Structures are given as structure tokens and as C-alpha cells.
What does this fold into?
Amino acid sequence: MLLDPNHLSALSAILRRGSFDAAASELAVTPSAISQRIKALEDLVGATLINRGSPCTATPMGLRIAQHAEDIGLLEAQLARELTLDQTNGPARVRIAVPADVLATWFINAMSQVDGLLFDLVVDDQDHSAEWLRRGEVSAAITVGGDTIPGSDAVTLGSLRYIPTANPMFIRKWFADGVNADTLSRATCLTFNRKDGLQKAWITQQTGQRISPPSHFLPSSQGFVEAAIAGIGWGMNPENLARRALEDGRLCPLMPGARLDVRLTWQVGRVLSTALAPLTAAVKSASRAALLQLDTSDQA
It folds into this structure.
């Protein structure tokens, strides 16, 4: 089954812009033309691809087909480079799943080293970024652990170190009797979102018990640090982000030396490995400067 490039570009534009009108403006066609292209594509595949709303969103099949369109763009851009052809269609777009803390600490440095790509980042909790690649909805992902997703090439990057941190006054108030299962069950912690298991993983590592402390949900890496500084709760903060606050005393470790090192892997769909080789090189370079390169016994 051959998919019309014009139909694919209409689908991608709607998902980027959120509406048929905005997609029409981007592609310099009428909204009616966009509607006709989507209808033709949906008729061809026999399924609804767009959830009409404000904004428009993709169905699971729509996401998969849109990702297919971006993969084709990357492969065409690679071929144009190899044949030294003019790339009249402009930069190719690459969709990548990236954990929020990776984006906040070092991934932008990797992006800055690559020309000729437009980035579409899917930001998710670190334990779930692999699912985007496994479902075929992104071209590459930063994942946790060393398991390789079938059909992908994997590069071990290093470990992102997390420190359990809190405001000194918060520690005096909630942990005067020490950091143990009882005090951890009562002290309010910070949680990035409902997928975030870092705090509970660290508690289990230290106490051997599964504890669910009261928690604020705060989906912002920098906000996580600021909330800990403000005394709202304790949380697992990347050492890179919390270093200045730890050095000047606004934050303190709950237990000195009791850190959690999370191993990260860069994974790329195998068919795109060559096309994304410059990006892979940039990711490896940026990660070397930001991540621990030695394995530790408590990696997650």
C-alpha cells in the first residue's frame, strides 16, 4: 500500500498545529484540501486517524502513520546528503522521547550540535520513554536500563545521579528522629507525575519496605528543585540541577552518600541508524560531559 506524500504531510501538519485551518496555512493550501487529503488517507487505511477537536489529536493509528511520514523524511534527507542533492524540502523532522530530567540537564547540548534537523520532543517520565519507541511513535528515545527494544540499535550513555534533597528546616522538622521507614512514611515528598517511581524506589532501597508517603505532584524538573528549596517536600533531584543549592546550603541530602544512579541508554530505530548517526554522535558527546561513566551497584 503506497501512501500519498501530500496526504502524509497533511496529517503531520494537523498534529503539529492542532487544527485543519492551521495545517492549511502551513502547507499553503485551503482547509478543504486538507480535509480531502485526510479523508482520502482514512479511506485508504480504513480507520479514523484524527480525533476532531480543539486541538485535534491523533488516534493510535494516526500517530503511527505520522511517525512513518517523519521516518521517510529522515531517510530522504540522508539520501539527498549522500547524493549531494539540494534539499528543497528543508530540514527533516525527528521525533524523540526524552525524560524530563534528561532534557533539563543535558539533552539540549546534544541538540545544539546537530544541523539539518527539526526536533519534536515527547517529554515523559524516564521509566516510560521506552514505550514510545516500542510502539513505533518516535524515531529514537532515551531509555532507562540496558534492555534493547527490538528493532533498535542501543548505545549505553552513563548514569544520571539523583540525590534525595530537602530544605534544612524541612529535614529538622520531619527527620529529627532520623531517616527511617517511620519518618519517610509521614514526611511529604515531591513526585513528578503519577508515573514517577524514583522516590519510592529510593525509599525501598534504603528501608527494604514499600512505602507510599504523602506527595505533591509537580511535573517540572526545575520546579522540583525550587519546591524542595521552598520546603514544600523532599524529592530526588538530579545532582546536576541541585548542585548549586547543595553547595550554598539551600538544600541538604536526606542521607549523605545515599544516592540513586539511573543508567540511561540511547536507542534508535535500526532502519534510521545511519540517517541519525550525526545525532547519535552528538548525544554520546553531550552525555559524556553530564553523566557518570562508571557502573555502580545501585543503578536503577
In short: The two ends are 43 Å apart (CA to CA). The CA atoms of residues 110 and 282 lie 5 Å apart. Residues 296-300 have pLDDT under 50 and may be disordered. The chain has twelve helices and eleven strands.
